[in-house]
Amino acid sequence: MGRRMLAAGVVAAALAMAACGGGESGEPPSAGEGYRVGLLLPESKTTRYDTFDRPYIEARLGEVCADCEVLYRNADSDAAQQATQAAELLDQDIRVLILDAVDAAAAAAVVTDAEARGVPVVAYDRLAKGPVDFYVSFDNEKVGQVQAQSLLTALGGERTRPIVMINGAPADPNAAGFKKGAHSVLDGEVTIGREFDAADWSAEAARTGMAAAITALGAEKIAGVYAANDGTAGGAIEALKAAGVTELPPVTGQDAEIAAIQRILAGEQYATIYKAIKPQATVAADMAVAAATGTAYTGHVTSFTDNGTAKVTSVLLPPVAVTRANVKDTVVADGFYTAPQLCTGSYAAACHEAGIS
């Protein structure tokens, strides 16, 4: 209870700083003595988590708390397994938990258990239910709006044929935000011929659903595909190719996975959403240190996000649409990928045409 009261003080201090115009890049909080930080990530089907999120979080924690130890688990899309992992970490006396929930509602039990043990929780990327202390992610409705607008841009004046809409995992609260944002742009502008959710963000689910949509609508009748992330975009593109489509319609995505960027360069995928993971991971690590040590988080101006239990102090970062025209100026310029990583084999010529070398 004492640490929870301390966390409430941290929130108040952070809000006071924000009200005074807290800067975009304040000093990291004081780490204090070394302690254990729990890190729970949701799945490995999306390559970003083990390739980027985990290393960036661990690196930042190493910078601001050199004596801290990170205890990491990945739930492989299993909410029950994540609950077991959380209990294991809490039993190992972690001081703070960074949680990217498999299932936001199911994670409420994890967050409540952590609160009972005096362990603050930083919700990372997905907002869990329960008494969460901090939250860092991107503006999910804005992500959906940017995805949808990129699709409309690609369609141009071709608004008579239907599109297919492939949403994300129903258990992921972010997916609902993406869907809401996308509908706010697409509704009334295009006809949505088929719409479905891809369980667990599975490319296979997207491929199966897209194949059914092709059968129902006709491959030549599909003007474009709204795919909520790059894995589902890849599944949709595979289904289109399997149906004999040689001139692919524009397909959206999200996460800027290397395979998606290569597809964009090759003209197979129209766009993805680049959510700069390093700043997000840095905020999460700094929030964790602030929560663990009872110091104010001042790195970014904060807002509130209502998770149904509390108004959670939050940092929501802006998304960026990436098309072939700005690959060089976004993911390459930021060092997210290097030219040698992208320009392998058959993609070398496409890289050259895009000015990437």
TrEMBL record:
<dbReference type="Pfam" id="PF13407">
    <property type="entry name" value="Peripla_BP_4"/>
</dbReference>
<feature type="signal peptide">
    <location>
        <begin position="1"/>
        <end position="18"/>
    </location>
</feature>
<keyword id="KW-0732">Signal</keyword>
<feature type="domain" description="Periplasmic binding protein">
    <location>
        <begin position="39"/>
        <end position="295"/>
    </location>
</feature>
<dbReference type="InterPro" id="IPR050555">
    <property type="entry name" value="Bact_Solute-Bind_Prot2"/>
</dbReference>
<dbReference type="InterPro" id="IPR028082">
    <property type="entry name" value="Peripla_BP_I"/>
</dbReference>
<dbReference type="InterPro" id="IPR025997">
    <property type="entry name" value="SBP_2_dom"/>
</dbReference>
<protein>
    <submittedName>
        <fullName>D-xylose transport system substrate-binding protein</fullName>
    </submittedName>
</protein>
